[in-house]
Amino acid sequence: xxxxxxxxxxxxxxxxxxxxxxxxxxxxxxxxxxxxxxxxxxxxxxxxxxxxxxxxxxxxxxxxxxxxxxxxxxxxxxxxxxxxxxxxxxxxxxxxxxxxxxxxxxxxxxxxxxxxxxxxxxxxxxxxxxxxxxxxxxxxxxxxxxxxxxxxxxxxxxxxxxxxxxxxxxxxxxxxxxxxxxxxxxxxxxxxxxxxxxxxxxxxxxxxxxxxxxxxxxxxxxxxxxxxxxxxxxxxxxxxxxxxxxxxxxxxxxxxxxxxxxxxxxxxxxxxxxxxxxxxxxxxxxxxxxxxxxxxxxxxxxxxxxxxxxxxxxxxxxxxxxxxx
Length: 325
Known about the structure:
Layout: H1 3-25, E1 29-35, H2 43-55, E2 64-70, H3 78-87, E3 92-96, H4 99-104, E4 112-116, H5 120-123, E5 126-128, E6 131-132, E7 136-140, H6 146-157, E8 163-168, H7 175-189, E9 192-197, H8 201-213, E10 218-221, H9 225-229, H10 231-241, E11 245-247, H11 250-254, E12 259-263, H12 265-270, H13 272-280, E13 296-301, H14 302-308, H15 314-319, E14 322-324
Parallel strand pairs: 1-2, 1-3, 3-4, 4-7, 8-9, 8-10, 10-11, 11-12, 13-14
Antiparallel strand pairs: 5-6, 12-13
Helix pairs in contact: 2-13, 6-7
């Protein structure tokens, strides 16, 4: 080999690490998205999740491939959909909502990052928020302590508030924490709390019948998938009874509740990418604490307030993130 050929060969060898690094950086991350819900119900949250990935340099169609699986409101489809994702060789699965409980029982061979509306400890996904179990970790939307604040908001809106009905799914993990917080706040504020467990539509109808015969002055809804699916039924009933509704998620206020105060859901979905990034780079899910909401939003529906003949305190309007006219 002559000197020129030798130098060319050595230069090529020296360039191999850089070429390998460039190829590695250009590698496409392939993950799965799994939910029992319909796609349309999650569109804004998926936009926020993609934004979070983009902020970390993962862009769909360039170096990020997300295999989407929607159960279309059939929880029994989750195991089959999870199996499909594993067969498609995803590196990790992002599970959402009720699908998380089903996924936790499957002993999947890939890590799982979840975003869950309930309490992961009550659900059995973690020994504590600081200590997730197995190959799962993620984010929760639950902040049970905010229920007392929602009661305070109702008290400021409804003159001489004394009776509030709680509409809640008793099968939602963490519901006991939320109920206890409400009852403690009720005692402090002098408000009678009436709890109506509504895991099914028929139970919801029974609650309505009870409330017709023994009315309350306001309704507070504990937010979960069942409540979201049936939100308009509850809000329409409350409108007929001329009582205001409050809840934790903004979708309720946008659907006619007088106010919502709770976690900024888009922020939690935006943070999903950070957990995925850390795990694919070598972190163990069990070493990443479950993250509670840190950003919150208040949405006030003035249109509903006017229809019910109620006034919104100026201080509440001033701090509202959104006011629906």
